Amino acid sequence: MRFSFRDIAVAGILLIICNAGVTAGDARLLHASGTFTPEWSLLTGYGATHPGFGTTSQDVRTWDVILQRRATRKTTGSGGYRGSHEFLAEAAISHLLRPTHQPPIFALNFLSCWTLRRWDSLHPYIFVGGGPVYTEADIEEMGARLNGNYQAGLGLTFAFGRHCKAHIEYRFHHISNGGRKDPNDPLNSSKVLAGIRIGR
Question: Quick check: bond before 124 cis, omega within 30?
Answer without folding.
Answer: no
